[in-house]
Amino acid sequence: MPTDLIDSHVHVWDPTGGYPWLTGPLRRPYRLADLRRSIDPDVSVSVILVEAGRGDPAETSDLLDLAATDPSVAGVVGTANLQCPGAGGRLEALISRPHGNYLVGLRERLDGRLIAAVEAVAGQLGEHGLALEVSCSPKQFDQVGQLVEVLGPEVPVVLDHLAGPPAAPQPTDLLEWWVDGLKDLAALPSVSVKLSGILTQLTGPASWRVDMVRQAVNILGPDRTMIGSDWPVCLTGGSWAAAIDTVRAALTGCPPADLERVLAGTARQVFRLGDRRPVV
């Protein structure tokens, strides 16, 4: 069955194995079987698993093993703690381990240490077709530009959660700051944005969420924006379907080809999913 949707931002976890940051209703096991119960069986969905700060270096290895056993997993965005000494060796170990071919990117903390350290692994990232994923606010857009400059045009840089727009309707200057910053980033072809975190990062009315998604897509284009539910974190603000439907609502009236890019094509291209070959 062809894939109708690639959810580019999904977490799975068991808090008994770590994840000290989890609280409240999120502090229980969440597995792919739980997610599948939320999805219309008539819709074909593949997912990209994203590390969630378990607190030990084996989290990425465990996600790669899961990817090899579950056909719904298209890839894994892990971590190699690039800011710490020995990052190149850790990255190579992940790539060369069993099922390392499912590694499609790394998610790291954006700060000055990352920018200083990433040059040493830029060649590895490019050679293996890996993206670098970061969360940021508009205050850090200059750092995103520095990161792109260090990595070069061959390494995709993916920004989580719409790159931090105002959470709710704010004074005009704050919104303009985000819009103008995105327009600057649009001049950097290797930068793309996940339409994720919508139900939890954006606390304004539903119309605000739709507007922020629509503006991100209009500024960067459908070939540089990708859907991501942020499941199960999204459950604290709604449901998996609500996160997906918000993006669909923002794209009402778009040409079918543009909709396909946002729902699947951009993730497929940025994370080079067509180049991955299962290794059992």
Low-pLDDT runs: none
Query: Measured on Cα atoms, how large is the radius of gyration?
Result: 18 Å
Distance between the termini: 22 Å
Main beta sheet = 8 strands, parallel
**Strand element count:** 8
Give the overall average pLDDT. Answer: 94
Order of helices and strands: EHEHEHEHHEHEHEHHEHH
Query: Structural class of the secondary elements?
Result: alpha/beta
- Placed side by side, the strands forming the largest sheet appear as 1-2-3-4-5-6-7-8
Would you state the CATH class? Alpha Beta
What CATH architecture would you give? Alpha-Beta Barrel
In CATH, the homologous superfamily goes by the name Metal-dependent hydrolases
> CATH topology, anyone?
TIM Barrel
Overall, the morphology is globular
Query: Which percent band covers the strand fraction?
Result: 5-15%
Oligomer: single chain
Number of domains: 1
Explain what you see.
The chain is built from eleven helices and eight strands. It is globular, with a radius of gyration of 18 Å. It has helices at about 30-35, 60-70, 85-95, 110-115, 120-125, 140-150, 170-185, 200, 205-220, 240-250, 255-270; strands at about 5-10, 45-50, 75-80, 105, 130-135, 155-160, 190-195, 225. The two termini are about 20 Å apart. It has an eight-stranded parallel β-sheet.
Question: How do the strands and helices of this protein lay out in sequence?
Answer:
Elements lengths: L4 E6 L21 H5 L8 E6 L7 H12 L3 E6 L8 H10 L6 E5 L4 H6 L4 H6 L3 E4 L6 H11 L5 E3 L12 H14 L5 E5 L2 H4 L4 H15 L4 E3 L12 H11 L5 H15 L10
Parallel strand pairs: 1-2, 2-3, 3-4, 4-5, 5-6, 6-7, 7-8
Helix pairs in contact: 7-9, 9-10
